Amino acid sequence: LPVEGGWGWIVCAGTFIVNFIVFGIHNSFGVVYVNLLDELKLGKAETAWIGAMAMGLNFLCGPLTSILCTRYSCQATAFIGALLSVLGLFLTSFVQEPPKMYLTYGLLFGVGSSLSFVSSIVILGEYFQKRLALVNGIATSGSGVGSLVTGPVMNYLLANIGWQNCMRVLSGFAMLLWIAAFLFKPNKRRVSTRPSKDAGKLVDLSIWRNKAYVTWVITVALFQFGYLFPFVHLIKYAEELGISKSKGAWLIGFLSITSTIGRVLFGRLCDFQRVNRITVYQLSVFAIGVSTILCPLASNYGGLIAYAVTFGFFDGCFVGQVAVITADIVGHEKLSQGVGNMFGFIAIPMSFGPPVAGWLYDAFGSYDLSFYLSG
């Protein structure tokens, strides 16, 4: 059985670092998005594809990452992910055309971040079981803290040194992923207790015969279509209401603060045996949907802050508990396959959400329909 503590807490710290860097950059793409629109005079849809492709591949490569984790180790997989992430961000600083950015930022950084992120989630299951909900909440809160820090920092860098030098700074920042990967030592006790019939079984398609798992994956995928909308378009929406870029960037900061709080609180709540994690998750997703539908009613900065705070708090439940609920459904011994396959499936609607919102804006000159559809 997994060791409930010990080196596992160091692994938890490593997962926190990965989430801090990976989602700090992904979730702050909206800051870069506004600058690319203004400086390079690109269309909203084609620009949104850059960030959406990277985030989509971050999840689409989940099955590949789970296979690599099973065949080699989470540590080796995370090392490769760090290399691709650093390379992708650095090369992006030298290109200006969207097709090339799709390759450097979308493909290289997207795949690299997936190898780092998914392996960091899978490794937690090797060290924790009883306290996995709380530990996962603490570890994934790194993405909230990362978004809180990275958004304003990127906004400062963009204003003072330009987006290309900003990308070079981010590539140096991403080198910390190597430190995190070093912490992901395989739990030999956990590996040695795996049933022999599963040894060497890289692709377990039997998981798709689990009706509860299939239903779970479909519901998460439907939610993901509108999930990235505020991360990509909220700052631009705020700017069109007359709110400055710097204040708009803080909306992602407010979202990140409450998301961090939500991950820890929901993680602790969902550790109680009497609490139904799926019910808590359903209520959280419902709250996110309602707040997104109502967001167009907000006509000032205070209203947008209220939306960001609400979205962020309940987003903490989704991010912190999605892997834990998956483990409840498929079992801890199949966590790697369960998480990897689910992330790969949900990447498709996730990737299309932001570009569709951009197309709707270009067609109707307003973000209102995008809010309604996303909600």
TrEMBL record:
InterPro entries: MFS, MFS_dom, MFS_trans_sf, Proton-linked_MCT
PROSITE patterns tied to this protein: MFS (PS50850)
Pfam families: MFS_1 (PF07690)
Gene Ontology MF term list: transmembrane transporter activity
Domain Major facilitator superfamily (MFS) profile: 212-375
Alphabetically ordered keywords of this record: Membrane, Transmembrane, Transmembrane helix
UniProt GO cellular component terms: plasma membrane
Entry's transmembrane regions: 7-29, 49-69, 76-96, 102-125, 132-149, 161-184, 213-235, 247-266, 278-299, 305-330, 342-361
Source domain of life: Eukaryota
Compartments, record wording: Membrane
Topology in the lipid bilayer: Multi-pass membrane protein
Protein name: Major facilitator superfamily (MFS) profile domain-containing protein
Taxonomic lineage: Eukaryota, Metazoa, Cnidaria, Anthozoa, Hexacorallia
